[in-house]
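Run Rieske 2Fe-2S domain-containing protein through structure prediction, thanks.
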Amino acid sequence: MNADDIRAMIQPGQVHRDVYISDAVYRLEMRHLFTNAWVFVGHDSQTPNKGDYITTQVGDQPVIMVRHSDGEVKVLYNRCPHKGTKIAIDRAGNTGKFFRCPYHAWSFKTDGCLLAIPLKKGYEGTGLSESQNGKGMQAVGAVHNYRGFVFARLAEEGIGFDEFFGGSLSSIDNMVDRAPEGRVEISGPPLRYMHKCNWKMLVENQTDTCHPMVAHESSAGTAVKIYEQMGNPEPRPPAMQIIAPFMSPYEFFEDMGIRTWPNGHGHTGVNMSIHSNYDAIPGYFEAMVESYGEERAKAILDENRHNTVYFPNIMIKAPLTQLRNFIPLGADRTLVESYVYRLVGAPEQLTAMSAMYNRMINAPTSIVGHDDLEMYERAQEGLHAEGMQWVDIRRLHTGTEDFETEAVENGTTERQMRNQFHAWAKFMTMSMEDAPGVAAQ
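Sure, done. The structure for Rieske 2Fe-2S domain-containing protein is below.
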């Protein structure tokens, strides 16, 4: 496939099924898309001390995020430059002052620089010291820490962080500003949940507002009916505050609004969202007023964005301080990690509410998440059916669309899905342009 083949898969209002089911397309995503885009790695509170590290992946590339001796967070490829052995296999730990390869004991500083090699005299005059392997562990192309959230670009050169994210960073700002002390911290390990579907299905679903009242009728709908039969007792328990809004009518989601930004980012919940009417947590607003003043505190908390998609593969939910990372493992395999963050200086009841939401909606044991999972897996299987090659995303498509500008539209539009695929084609072909018509491997 070449750049023209990739662009041909994305048409106004429809995309070719191969973007979801083709192994060849998946391999190209790993080589190009996840190399050229800025991709979430982790939160710096996961590595608070020097030598602390986590292991994860960017696309299909194994990486280590580590706190260096200078206090900065580094992102290194998880590979020894000697024989290619993975340096770290634990999900998290503390390596002390250096990494040591378990195969031949080559050691490296926590910024990746080569520290020592046993029997180093055996390499004298061989050219190792002048080679890339002799420099140490390779760092990724670029790293940016934005208010604690660490992103990486694998490519050595490419689009800058600020240009890539632009105005979409306002959702991270709102999430962090909800902490009276202006920072958030990780609250335990994430919930992990395997999905037998393409990663883009999960990303698209985050801003699909025409499915909740249908797909979740068996779960949220049943809960609402039972609560009504009980007489809708007050005060509403947190579980009902969380699940009942999923059954809101189409008109509610239309009025919510959707905002899109360039490069595939966007969010639902411009005017209000399913998170707008949770009960107040005692002492929280007072703590916010003390930190920000009443006017600013009210402005922060009145912003109730639903789901913000950061292209290519994460979603944050600012009112509940959550992040979901959709990690591609194959054309039909995605590992979902769902994180909860603690608002520093806020009542712990807020963290408990967020953790409850995560268990009810995002966990392998969720009563709501399984509705979505069934739809994803049915779609992954159904797309192999012959007779129709294209997937429709033309809801409220009105003709020519400019995805290089910010836009706010009806909350049930599929513009954000179209926006994501516009960005998909852009970053997929960015590194193919030098050799148009030449088959990629």
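The first strand starts at residue 10 and ends at 11.
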